[in-house]
Amino acid sequence: MQIVSFIFMSRSIRFALSSIAFAIFLLFLVGYTNGSIHKNKLSPFIKPLTQLVKLIAANQEIKPTPIYIKLEIEDFAGVGAQDSAAWQQNMSWHPQWSRGGASGWWGVKGLATAATGGITKEIYIPQNGEYSLWMRYQDYTGKAEPFNVIVNYTGGHSKAEFGRMDVNTQPHPEIRWNYAWDKKNLNLKKGVAKISILLEQTAEVPRDIDALVLTNDANWNPKERGFPPQAYSNYLLKWSQKREPLKPLIEINKELRSIPQAWLLPKTAGRDFWYFGATTIVPGYPFPISILPEVGNPNSAKAFVARYGANPQSAPIFSNPITGIQIHISQVSELLKPDNPLRQYILTNKRPFVIVGNYGSAGKIPNSYQQLEKTFGNLWVGIISGENSYLTIPFSPENIPVGSDFKNANYQWLLTNGKSKWQQMINSDWASTVPNPFEKMILALSVGTSPHIHQLAESGAKTLGTESAAAMPYFQGQAAFARGAGRQYNKPWNWYFGASFGSAIRTFTSEDPYIIDLDGLKINSRNATIGPSLAHIRRALLFAYLQGASFFHPEQGYNLFDTNGQLNQMGWSYDEMLRLATKHPNRGVINTPVAILLDKAHGWDKYTYNGMRLWDKKPLERPDQMINQFFNVAYFPFPKNEGDAANDLNVPFPNGYFGDIFDVLVTSPTQMDSLQAYPAVFCLGDTRLDAKWAERLRKYVNDGGTLVINAEQVVAGFDESFLGVRLQNKQKESNGVVCERDNEKIVGTPFPYQEATATSARVIARASNGDPIAFVNKVGQGQVILTTPSYLMGYDEVSMPYMAHLLLELTSGLQPVEVRGDCQYFVNLRPDGYVITLSNNEGLVKMSYSPAAMDMSKTAEITLRIKDKPVVTEDWIGEDARPWSFPNEWLPEYTQPKQLSWQQEGNYYKTTVKLLPGEIRAYFIKTTNLKVQ
């Protein structure tokens, strides 16, 4: 009898056979124990009977889970940016007015004047039944915004009407609308279906639609941005209750760790970190400073000079030896003058500087580019362009020829025709001949880092850049792209700190008002209450240094002192980071044992400024959704946090369950060797590996690496001997997984998988019907992990719970310090020990236009376990206490000492530390047995 066919028998027959099988198994076991049955006669039966009993038990326990299909409307086909289109992208990043904003930053606007027009998306209905169709849209009080939804499925269709009556119970008192949810019930059939959203009449107001959720869970009611309880999130939330490590898939020699050469980035002027915060020389003070004259107080810089002029070294921030210079591009003409004080200071003190190109011009001064290069050499780090605001240089062509490779055409354009375009624009602005227009450009992109940072490195940029901002999702992921590109191409990278939270800018000095118009409502978006929290600002600064950035550039570093010349609240974090970096120049190297491998032309971005998340031109397709879903797992609980009203701590800095352990690499045609630095490489999305990359990955595995690859990504270079598996050209489906290594049963929504048979590989997971779906094959000194579910997602294009389980197995034991508790964390390697950073990003909530609130019940107890005996533990945050305090944003305890006390527990040493809401700690742990090379 075949075990797979057994699963499909009726329940009564299965029960009878399982009882018989179990009885036979017991008889054999008794006979073997008392000696009446010889071991050699018993052994052929033990394995199949054991497997049968296990599969029966697994099949009895796995039950269906509710289906939730959440779709972003901006991903529908037919959405156009042209004024003539009935449907347009509609950016909604004003979270203060929309109770968290549109999910994914974007919605879609159906024009009020449009009486026709439709947008569509194809989906897969996993099973027959009654579904609730939930729509989230802007509901205007007392006005109709009618639209229809039609679901065409095999053999029929269902239609629902929305927007014809008020469903919003909490409209904003001034703009009279708010996002609201409404639902209709539909009866649907399993199979491929097409959802159409139609305009069939004009309206008084636009039809602004954010998202939809299709679910067979009749009890689910969405709130705010509507995070559905997906199966993978439920799995991770359950795991987080105890956070016990799973059995490792990779064995690491913890007594002999190495700091890879690829992780040591080039230094600038003898240092591996600089703060680009000073701007000008003022009379009476020898170092450059940056203090913006306040409104009504044009002499505010004089107060600083009066306080510190007699003892310049006592001044915070600007006397610090790692403070470099930023000069706006409009001042290039002054910098070219030999008697310019700032020029003389730079040359005399060997201080690096950047030109800030934001919204400016170099002035078309003949040969100015070459003059700066000749005068300053490598002290001129480059031209910073925040959000591509310098010249607004294009990254991709406006149109892709029909029939061409869409992704590769976008990628290659920048290196060919795009290079010529950049060259023309930069040559013109500098009135110079610039051989490589990418060389000095430092693109600081909050949106656009993911698709472009490796591409810019490939093009020859000497310094890479990224931008953080309060409204962004999981900046740990953005840093993983920047850090990975820096390590892959051996280039320094710059962390550009954007000072706003949506449209709100925080300042503790008197500045000119910044007025925005939101649906006719005039808002002053610059004062001491609105904008990012002090806790967010503090993280941007400390993490930039501790996570390995080469440079930190503040967009708003000019308002750090009050009218008496003393640090204000904004300045506290800057001073703290600079003191720490100066006192501890050996920050170590952040340990990121897992490399994420993407295709060089992946074009993926989490959020974009036009709603199209694939090269800014197209919605994501299934392979691209794998990237999206992986990062949702890797930085969980971000998706849960994103479903709440936006705040600037647990959305941009979630307390990720896996820690900050990832770097992102791409299939560069020139840079492949950095793979060797990583114990594991995880392929994501449409990797499109060519023959050279297939061969390079084979060598990586043979030399001891672990490669994780999906059947959808297998190429000709990966044969049966390498995979240890024979892939069949047959697709099947299941909704449950049984993990062989720990016998855990995981239930999820239905997923498709490719049938496969193990040859030399070991099966580590099976579908609920017994089919193998994940394998480990030993190759040389390393191993290949092959998964067969399509991109590790269900039909709903949401991560399978097994993706989370596999990642927990893969990452288990890879860090030298085990961390248990609700916090963000990362570990830096040093030859003499480790620097571990712990950050509690929960319990401190700051909306963009309101004061912060604190929930002390979110205090987290963190447990650390380490195998190497700690000799000395240094508390880097608490070694220089300050009396600073600000309501609900900065507790006085934040900088007070908090020592660790270690106790031996078996073969490990253990300690615990409590982190208050918003608290950060960085500890250096000196050890004895460590042999870091």
Any chance you could write out the topology, listing elements then pairs?
Layout: H1 3-7, H2 11-34, H3 39-61, E1 68-72, E2 87-91, E3 106-110, E4 118-125, E5 129-140, E6 147-153, E7 156-162, E8 177-188, E9 191-198, E10 207-215, H4 231-240, E11 274-278, H5 300-308, E12 323-328, H6 332-335, H7 341-349, E13 353-356, H8 368-376, E14 380-386, H9 406-415, H10 417-430, E15 441-444, H11 449-459, E16 464-468, H12 475-489, E17 493-497, E18 500-501, E19 504-506, E20 515-518, E21 521-524, E22 526-527, H13 534-546, E23 551-554, H14 569-583, E24 589-590, E25 594-598, H15 622-634, H16 638-642, E26 662-666, E27 680-683, H17 691-702, E28 706-710, H18 720-723, E29 725-739, E30 745-758, E31 762-767, E32 772-779, E33 782-787, H19 801-811, E34 817-820, E35 824-830, E36 833-839, E37 844-845, E38 853-854, E39 860-866, E40 870-875, E41 903-905, E42 908-915, E43 920-927
Parallel strand pairs: 11-12, 11-23, 12-13, 13-14, 14-15, 16-17, 17-23, 19-22, 25-26, 25-27, 27-28, 28-33
Antiparallel strand pairs: 1-10, 2-3, 3-10, 4-9, 5-8, 5-10, 6-7, 6-9, 18-19, 20-21, 24-35, 29-30, 29-31, 31-32, 32-33, 34-39, 35-36, 36-43, 37-38, 39-42, 40-43, 41-42
